């Protein structure tokens, strides 16, 4: 076996182990992660029913579009459906760890193709230990999966349009479409490719390449099922995409400097990228096509995502491969072998320390009495009779952990609304009400009133915790 292959196998396994460790840092899966998992479970039984009208759980669907689920891109749920179909539902929480580790291989291949083997080694090691990518490899979220498809789309783009290998031009279109169907915000990256080709060819001559049009055709062929889903569900071929855009517009607005403030998630590589900007302009490295492409990838995406009002740090996952490859190229350009070893070692130390710090902070923050009580309450609910119903404002999470049918609390809240809900729809079920300060802290009048009514009218079947960290389960009667 070649040394290169041994190195890759070792690095991929290391990346996998590090990411699996982070799975255990948080006892509760993120909301969106449970939504994707539950959709996957539902689709494993009925692959043609992509909505929340299953009767057992629901997501919050913005803009009054319930039960339509098109604002949730389909590739991740359908992938998880395969796991559930083969009885591997208990292992889905490790799926992103595998994708994250395989992405290390993708970074190695891309860096080697764009630059050389030395850059590939530096880049893939950085990527394996990058805090932002490691942390989100432990969560069932679409951003990291989309980054995986995007990574290979870029690899095929480079092979197709730099090496003029036509079959890869078609594969580029396929994988770019898969990336879009995994995370709609991948759309922000689309401008990179025509801008790069325009600069490279010093004009529009690339439009004469018939395989460019085959690439575009392959892109839309992959989108066809989802376009028809949009037409049948929303009355518009672009309905699902438009729902996704509108849903994102309801998110909390952040400052234009949000990503700058949270750049610590890139650890020392954020500083390395800044140094690259100054160094490459000083040495006029921007004339280098490879460097230009990476700059476009990073900074065009940053500009667009910073302007967009709704921001989360995970939205930057699509630029993580470019950040690591650019950093690897930076190290490879240092004058002496000794200096390269020193800088490489310093970067690794910073990355490992950042990972340790992030794990320590996350573990102690998330493994608190409130979260642990919420898990204990779900264990109690899981052991109830299969015909039980749980009233909760954490519908996807409770269904994910307990596999019991759920319904949101009536809103606005009053006992009459609760009675009507139970008597009209769930009279033959054993109804329980989950109240926890995990999602219903006693800091607003609605939650205080709900707890007061529950304490006054129903008996507790389960109780965990104390006044400031508790989960309670009441039996409706």
Quick summary:
It is built from 20 helices and 5 strands. With 477 residues, the protein is an alpha/beta fold.
How would you characterize this protein structure?
By secondary structure, the chain is an alpha/beta fold. The chain folds into two domains: 3-365, no CATH class; 369-475. It contains 20 helices and five strands. It has a five-stranded mixed beta sheet with strand order 2-1-3-5-4, sandwiched between helices. Helix 4 packs antiparallel against helix 6 (131-137). The longest helix is centred in the C-terminal third of the chain and has 30 residues, at 337-366. The radius of gyration is 25 Å and the shape is globular. The mean pLDDT is 94.
């Amino acid at each position: 076996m070649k040394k290169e292959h041994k190195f890759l196998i070792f690095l991929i396994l290391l990346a996998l182990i590090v990411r699996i460790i982070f799975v255990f840092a948080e006892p509760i899966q993120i909301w969106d992660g449970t939504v994707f998992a539950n959709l996957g479970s539902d689709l494993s039984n009925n692959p043609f029913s992509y909505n929340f009208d299953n009767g057992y759980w629901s997501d919050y669907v913005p803009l009054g579009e319930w039960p339509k689920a098109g604002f949730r891109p389909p590739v991740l749920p359908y992938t998880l459906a395969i796991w559930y179909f083969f009885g591997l539902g208990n292992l889905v929480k490790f799926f992103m760890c595998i994708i994250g580790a395989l992405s290390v291989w993708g970074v190695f291949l891309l860096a080697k193709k764009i630059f050389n083997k030395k850059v590939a080694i530096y880049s893939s090691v950085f990527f394996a230990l990058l805090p932002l990518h490691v942390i989100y490899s432990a969560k069932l979220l679409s951003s990291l999966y989309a980054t995986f498809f995007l990574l290979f789309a870029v690899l095929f783009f480079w092979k197709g349009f730099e090496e003029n290998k036509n079959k890869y031009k078609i594969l580029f279109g396929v994988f770019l479409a898969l990336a879009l169907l995994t995370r709609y915000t991948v759309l922000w990256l689309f401008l990179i490719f025509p801008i790069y080709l325009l600069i490279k060819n010093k004009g529009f001559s690339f439009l004469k390449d018939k395989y460019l049009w085959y690439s575009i055709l392959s892109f839309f062929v992959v989108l066809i099922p989802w376009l028809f889903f949009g037409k049948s569900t929303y009355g518009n071929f672009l309905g699902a995409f438009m729902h996704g855009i509108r849903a994102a517009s309801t998110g909390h607005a952040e400052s234009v400097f949000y990503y700058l403030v949270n750049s610590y998630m890139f650890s020392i590589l954020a500083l390395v990228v800044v140094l690259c900007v100054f160094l490459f302009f000083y040495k006029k490295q921007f004339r280098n096509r490879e460097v230009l492409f990476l700059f476009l990838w990073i900074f065009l995406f940053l500009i667009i995502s910073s302007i967009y009002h709704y921001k989360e740090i995970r939205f930057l996952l699509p630029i993580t491969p470019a950040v690591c490859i650019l950093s690897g190229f930076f190290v490879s350009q240092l004058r002496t072998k000794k200096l390269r070893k020193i800088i490489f070692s310093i970067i690794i130390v910073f990355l490992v320390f950042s990972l340790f710090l992030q794990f320590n902070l996350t573990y102690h923050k998330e493994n608190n009495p409130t979260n642990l009580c919420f898990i204990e309450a779900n264990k109690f609910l899981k052991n109830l009779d299969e015909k039980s119903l749980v009233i909760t404002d954490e519908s996807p999470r409770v269904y994910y952990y307990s596999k019991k049918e759920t319904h949101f609390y009536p809103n606005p809240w009053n006992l009459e609304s609760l009675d009507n809900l139970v008597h009209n729809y769930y009279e033959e079920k054993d109804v329980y009400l989950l109240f926890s300060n995990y999602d219903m802290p006693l800091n607003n009048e609605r939650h205080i009133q709900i707890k007061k009514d529950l304490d006054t009218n129903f008996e507790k079947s389960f109780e965990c915790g104390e006044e400031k960290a508790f989960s309670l389960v009441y039996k409706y009667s």
